[in-house]
Design a protein that fits this description.
Number of strands: 9
Largest sheet: 9 strands, mixed
Oligomer: single chain
CATH architecture of the largest domain: Alpha-Beta Complex
Shape: globular
CATH class of the largest domain: Alpha Beta
Strand content: 15-25%
Radius of gyration: 21 Å
Structural class: alpha/beta
Length: about 325
């Protein structure tokens, strides 16, 4: 039997689309609400979907919401075998559940199966297009999944689910622990969900990228001693391109403004990265610009993480919409 854990806050019509796409395909559904002020709870209850309101006096993370939803299903339904995790701004594709369940039933060594998540409105902004590219990961064995995935309950319980204290990047971190226990992750060549990022402004892109840098730094701080050096490469790239290079050029420019021309190295990087993705056609250089210049907001996230560590402050979620 399959259960679904939906998490959200003030998702409006996006949540309605999410729930309506689930009720035909899922045996048990729990909606975990994190302080919505709209009709989210009412819409869920009107569809006979069980609801769980988080105690918002405790710092919120998506990981905590997913864990509480999963634990609710585990304790209530003894015949549960798989859990489909899905964000409230996503809509499940009609054939996904049957395909994902069939794969896990045939391949006992796999803990997680995911598919193709697509942006619902990629034409609305370049930022939505960039998200759609981000979701298009290689088909086959994978190192991690995203927020939408079907997970084998046995494996989920073995690693005690997500880490509640991670403000982002909780899915790949759990997948890292699953792989350490001998489990595998797979991405099917199948449509899984429609996602609505709703990013229309550059400051939203900036905050989302800051969150990425924070997540990389937090993940590396936990597992940097592992054999694969979890997230260490990502952090090193942030330090090089987001901190050291611009700082070095800025210091040289104090002595002679001509050294400002060294910033052209970023233009060269954009061209190099863009040329490496001819499959992206006319958006490849916009994507490359996001990848290269995104190291700056990622560096802001890294610095925020270091500040929180030294000040012994608990991380708080970074929201972009």
């Amino acid at each position: 039997m399959i259960g679904a854990v939906v998490i959200g806050r003030n998702e409006g019509q996006r949540l309605i689309s999410c729930l309506d796409s689930l009720v035909k395909h899922i045996d048990y559904i729990i909606y975990v609400d994190s302080g919505s002020t709209d009709d989210s709870l009412h819409e869920s209850e009107s569809r006979n979907i069980e609801c769980l309101s988080l105690d918002m006096s405790i710092p919120f993370t998506a990981a905590r919401a997913r864990n509480e939803g999963a634990n609710y299903l585990i304790h209530k339904y003894s015949d549960l075998q798989f859990i489909q995790f899905i964000d409230g701004d996503c809509e499940i594709q009609p054939d996904w559940i049957s395909k994902a369940q069939e794969f896990l039933e045939k391949h006992n060594q796999y803990a997680v199966v995911c598919g193709r998540r697509r942006e619902r409105y990629p034409e609305n902004s370049v930022y939505n297009q960039l998200c759609d590219i981000e979701w298009d990961t290689p088909v086959g064995d994978a190192r991690a999944c995203g927020g939408d995935a079907l997970i084998r309950l046995e494996a989920f319980k073995q690693v005690v689910g997500y880490r509640d204290d991670l403000i982002a990047g909780e899915e790949p971190e759990m997948c890292f622990r699953l792989r350490a226990e001998g489990w595998k992750i797979y991405r099917l060549d199948a449509e899984m969900t429609l996602h609505d990022a709703a990013i229309s402004k550059i400051f939203q892109w900036w905050k989302r990228t800051v969150r990425t840098g924070y997540a990389f730094s937090l993940g590396a701080s936990i597992h940097y001693k592992s054999q694969e050096g979890y997230r260490v490469k990502e952090v090193c790239r942030i330090i090089l391109w987001g901190i050291l290079c611009p700082l070095f050029i800025a210091i040289l420019s104090i002595y002679n403004f001509i050294y400002l021309n060294l910033f052209f190295i970023y233009l060269i990087q954009v061209i190099r990265v863009g040329v490496s993705r001819p499959d992206l056609d006319n958006i490849k250089f916009k994507w490359a610009t996001s990848v290269v210049l995104g190291k700056v907001p990622e560096a802001v996230g890294l610095i925020s993480f270091v500040r929180d560590v030294f000040c012994r402050r608990r991380a708080r979620i970074i929201e972009y919409k």
